[in-house]
């Protein structure tokens, strides 16, 4: 992805942005809000940064009704009277721009049978309990999310929430169908994307916000799904495939308006930048029968630096702790792209235990070095390292199964309880007094949010996600209103360890130092 592409697309798409956008000068001011004293204090007081990166939940979906115990203002669903603001009633519109009177509801979700809900945000717990897995997962591909946002109006999330099953349009169809034909062919409306959970449903997360720091203007890095946002966590950019077949690229950069929007759910944009999910070719991986090796991002093109490389060059250890890594590690140094001996493809017994496209480092040419050097570890190793005081300077933690909180069979409560166990392992270990833990989500999962994302360039930002800073030095009960995004995590790491930025994204990101108070006495987890 060259600077030429970046600038051309940036100017093209910035012209189409209207509502809810914050200008670049403000971003620069936010990024430089802290001074050298805070930088020095960070370096003197924090030796370990831990990033817990969960899956597919939006800010209002988890904190839409959060009330700060100290009265701090929160940018969420509540108005000054502490009620869900009536301005959100009737906001969602169908493909033709007509407001829904009642929400379309999924027939295959037991909790929504024989139920009528008005067109407004609602408490989700009675219908999809926070501790019960339901096979319902909103669609959130790159251009689809742009259309849901609809120039900052945030009014097409219900209309475009689900993809139609068993609909496979050809590349010619995508070029010749009218906008309405495409939208109606590839989308199915569903109302649960307006649902939110309350404190009683996910209490530990709300308790963390009470005691530590909640960011209410933290956005996913890139429009769309998991792969691109995982890559932005590692390198502040996505992968590229200059040899991607034409029929795997979106034929154009479509406008943002939902009625005029072609639904290109293809993996690459016109320039070959990865914008939707694809697995890596290097093991351990999973192959889809409708994909060929040429579809996947070639490791030899991913030679730019990521945060692991920056740390390595500085002589600092780092680790990606992935749940179930010990189960799939035997496939990590293999390269054959089919099943059998020497195959990088996980066997059918183990493929449900690991999600390859959630591990960004697996896309890089240096992947085998990362494995051999011990940077890929299990989450069981993290617990042991935390308790024994052996945490590396930077840790990334990724769930692989029911603990990831991914909608479907993965529940908020299972993920929350798992995160609590990780935090307790750190807080009870010898490194707690020198640790900062950042909890966030790769992307908003297609859930509606009340705040439109600023557009920094041709790729994002995407919707808001929950984000928490947990540390002995976090400002107690602070709601941080600075504009932040996935690049802010990189900025914090770079600031603490004196590393160069990876791209313009992290260079100008908010460093989150205003969320710390290094003059206070170190505090306990809760």
UniProtKB/TrEMBL annotation:
The enzyme's first-digit EC class, named in words, is hydrolase
Q: Enumerate the transmembrane spans.
A: none
Gene3D superfamilies of this UniProt entry? Answer: Alkaline Phosphatase, subunit A (3.40.720.10)
Q: Name one GO molecular function term.
A: phosphatidylcholine phospholipase C activity
**Assigned keywords, A-Z:** Hydrolase
- PROSITE patterns hit by this protein: TAT (PS51318)
Pfam families, per this entry?
Answer: Phosphoesterase
Q: Which domain of life is it from?
A: Bacteria
Q: Does the keyword ATP-binding apply?
A: no
Instruction: Name the chain's protein.
Output: phospholipase C
Native organism: Acidithiobacillus thiooxidans ATCC 19377
Q: Which gene encodes it?
A: plcA_2
């Amino acid at each position: 992805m060259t600077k030429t592409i970046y600038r051309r697309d940036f100017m093209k798409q910035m012209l189409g942005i209207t509502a809810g956008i914050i200008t670049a000068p403000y971003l620069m001011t936010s990024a430089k809000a802290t001074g050298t004293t805070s930088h020095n204090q960070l370096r003197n007081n924090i030796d370990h940064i831990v990033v817990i990166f969960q899956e597919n939940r939006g800010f209002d979906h988890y904190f839409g009704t959060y009330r700060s115990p100290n009265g701090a203002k929160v940018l969420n669903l509540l108005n000054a009277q502490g009620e869900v603001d009536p301005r959100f009633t009737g906001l969602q519109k169908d493909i033709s721009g007509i407001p829904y009177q009642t929400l379309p509801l999924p027939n295959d979700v037991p909790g929504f049978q024989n139920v009528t809900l008005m067109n407004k945000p609602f408490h989700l717990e009675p219908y999809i309990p926070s501790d019960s897995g339901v096979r319902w997962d909103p669609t959130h591909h790159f251009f689809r999310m742009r259309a849901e946002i609809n120039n900052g109006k945030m009014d097409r999330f219900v209309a475009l929430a689900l993809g139609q099953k068993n609909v496979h349009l050809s590349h010619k169809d995508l070029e010749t169908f009218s906008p309405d034909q495409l939208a109606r062919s590839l989308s199915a409306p569903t109302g649960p994307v307006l649902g939110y959970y309350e404190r009683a449903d996910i209490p530990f997360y709300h308790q963390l916000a009470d005691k530590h720091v909640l960011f209410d203007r933290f956005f996913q890095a890139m429009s769309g799904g998991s792969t691109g946002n995982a890559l932005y966590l590692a390198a502040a950019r996505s992968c590229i495939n200059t040899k991607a077949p034409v029929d795997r690229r979106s034929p154009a950069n479509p406008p943002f308006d939902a009625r005029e929007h072609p639904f290109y759910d293809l993996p690459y944009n016109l320039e070959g930048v990865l914008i939707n999910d694809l697995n890596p070719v290097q093991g351990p991986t999973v192959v889809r029968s409708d994909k060929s090796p040429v579809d996947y991002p070639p490791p030899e093109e991913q030679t730019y630096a990521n945060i692991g490389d920056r740390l390595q060059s500085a002589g600092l250890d780092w680790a990606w702790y992935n749940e179930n890594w010990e189960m799939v590690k035997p496939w990590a140094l293999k390269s054959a792209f089919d099943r059998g001996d020497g195959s990088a493809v996980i066997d059918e017994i183990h493929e449900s235990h690991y999600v390859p496209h959630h591990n960004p480092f697996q896309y890089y040419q240096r992947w085998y070095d990362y494995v051999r050097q011990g940077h890929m570890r299990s989450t069981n190793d993290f617990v042991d390292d935390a308790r024994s005081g052996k945490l590396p300077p930077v840790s990334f933690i990724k769930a692989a199964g029911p603990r990831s909180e991914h909608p479907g069979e993965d529940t908020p409560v299972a993920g929350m309880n798992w995160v609590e166990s990780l935090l307790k392992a750190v807080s009870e270990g010898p490194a707690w007094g020198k640790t900062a833990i950042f909890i966030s989500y790769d992307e908003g999962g297609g859930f509606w949010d009340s705040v439109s994302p600023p557009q920094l360039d041709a790729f994002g930002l995407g919707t808001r996600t929950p984000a928490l800073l947990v540390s002995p030095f976090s400002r107690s009960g602070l709601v941080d209103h600075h504009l932040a995004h996935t690049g802010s995590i990189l900025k914090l790491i770079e600031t603490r360890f004196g590393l160069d930025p990876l791209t313009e994204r992290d260079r100008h990101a908010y460093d989150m130092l205003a969320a710390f108070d290094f003059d206070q006495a170190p505090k306990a987890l809760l």
